[in-house]
Backbone:
């Protein structure tokens, strides 16, 4: 990938073994820009950075084993409901967890 500064940006990874989490992102060695970060929990993409907000990087930096498991369970439950794979027929998109930074 090419960085906006014109230099090449390489795929990099940070690992948090306690949380079974990875942060995958593109990093430019020339200017230090980090882009396209993805938070991966238990081998599944669960969160992405969006323009103007480093959501995946913020989650990764604050993860604990408990919060990682809660996030994974919430994302999995929501995906199941949206994909129609849920055993719960209520159609309720609310989860039992709430997260703050």
Residues:
């Amino acid at each position: 990938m090419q960085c906006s500064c014109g230099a090449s940006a390489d795929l990099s990874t940070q690992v948090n073994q306690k949380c079974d989490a990875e942060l995958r992102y593109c990093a430019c060695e020339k200017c230090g820009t980090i882009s396209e970060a993805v938070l991966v929990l238990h081998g599944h993409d669960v969160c992405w950075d969006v323009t103007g907000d480093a959501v995946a990087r913020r989650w990764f930096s604050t993860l604990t084993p408990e919060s990682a498991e809660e996030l994974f369970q919430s994302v999995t439950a929501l995906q199941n409901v949206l994909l129609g794979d849920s055993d719960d027929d209520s159609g309720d998109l609310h989860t039992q967890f709430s997260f703050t930074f």
About this structure: The beta strands are 9-16, 21-28, 34-41, 44-48. The CA atoms of residues 53 and 95 lie 23 Å apart.
